[in-house]
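Structural prep section.
Before we set up the soaks we want a predicted structure of the protein with NAP in place, mainly to decide which crystallisation condition to try first. Input record follows.
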Amino acid sequence: MSRGDMAKPLLGHRSMEGDSSSTALSGRTIGVLGSGDFARSLAIRLVCSGFKVVVGSRNPKRKANLFPSAAEVTFQAEAVKKTDVIFVAVFREHYSTLCDLADVLAGKILVDVSNNTEINHHKESNAEYLASLFPACTVVKGFNVLSAWTLQSGARDGNKQVLLCSDNQEAKRTVAEIAQVMGFTPVDMGCMSSACEIENIPLRLLPAWKIPIFLSLGLFLCFFTYNLIRQVIHPYIREQKNKLYKIPIEVVNTTLPCVAYVMLSLVYLPGVVAACSQLYYGTKYRRFPDWLDQWLQHRKQIGLLSFFCAALHAVYSLCLPMRRSHRYQLIEMAVKQAMEKKMNIWVEEEVWRMEIYLSVGIIALGLLSLLAITSLPSIANSLNWREFSFIQSTLGFIALVISTLHTLTYGWSRAFDENQYKFYLPPTYTLTLLVPCTVIIAKVIFILPCIQQRLLRIRRGWEKGRYVKFVLPSATGEFSSGETSSNV
Ligand code: NAP
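Run finished without errors. Recording the tokens verbatim:
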């Protein structure tokens, strides 16, 4: 699963360097223009982090009591004179009203914290617009991805990253150090041309989730319709039996595991396709098609949705015995047996099937929970690459195999029972097995030494049709070097 959100380098660390800069910075005066929600939260956090704060307002007398007593609230021009770094906590529409301050602002660092109401609302970003109004100032874009609430409650309770960009490295470093002292993690997003991207971030609604959500909804609809036909429509048409009561729980509960299982296999299928492509072309330097790239990038979300469906399936299954229909059916069966004078209804094979089915189901859900937890950035960041790949790749594949066992023990011999073919439609579980079994078979083939070695060499830079020096791990796990011609 992708760790893309941490791909950009962090500016500095809270190590010795960070500590010394924090000592140098604490006590420094920071200015805030504006006295609204964001300005207030910013002032509180800055004061708590040891900075002196001076707030510039059009009406300081009226606003002073909204700020902590340690912060000085004064007129805009007065505030600007007292500091070199000024947070502009004012909406873009009001930037032009600050132009009277151009002379006192000259040579200072302005931090643009503003957001828009729509994605790409203006031609130029707010930060670039601010820079054009105040050419004698240095503008740094940042802090806009934090809400006033996150700022006020501190970095321990909310998003910790502060995305920064500026054309002036020195100014960007100063603001990064301030963010670090405030307990946030500055992330360098490059030069001012990134401001538009940073301003769009808070406006995006689950951008990475759209495709996986539509995919899972599509799968849900397909399987739901299929199960509805088999479990409700078929008995109605063939036997005039009304089974509509099955829709809310039973049909949904047979649909959810299908979606969870197929979605889990879709996490591993793009890796198989990518490996096949690398084997076919004999290189890792050929770009994957866009659809495969997109698919690879969405594996985390697909996996989390698979876990969500599996968890819902577990809850629905636990609720099955609570239903009134279930109680009636049990009583009906008991009465029928009493009438037929049947004493022993124990079927050994059925007992074992159910025990194994439930046991592997619980293990599969446990493994999926582990995969979901370790995909959270805070946990993923505490793992090294080998640990992360062991959990997500090896344990994930084991979860797929165990889910397959769960499905097979559920289906058992139903695929060979002609009564199970409603309107000639095979039992749903046989359909769900298609993609996961393809992935499992492909993965087993990739483990074959001849294929594994070739794949390993390709991933280390070897290319078909080229003469290269390569290094391969020997059977003992140590590295051995050798030279080979391209056709080996
Ligand atoms: P707000 O509560 O409406 O405050 C805006 C402040 O701007 C006012 O209190 C006012 O302070 C000042 N201002 C200066 N010139 C003005 C003018 N001509 N007309 C009106 N007000 C003027 O807004 P906010 O929520 O604090 O947001 C401020 C900035 O932070 C915005 O750019 C916003 O996009 C950004 N931001 C906010 C949040 C958030 O959670 N609220 C999150 C991220 C970014 P004085 O009357 O004292 O001059």
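Observations: The pocket of NAP is lined by residues 34-39, 57-59, 63, 89-91, 94, 97, 113-115, 144, 147-148 (CB under 6 Å).
Flagged for discussion at group meeting.
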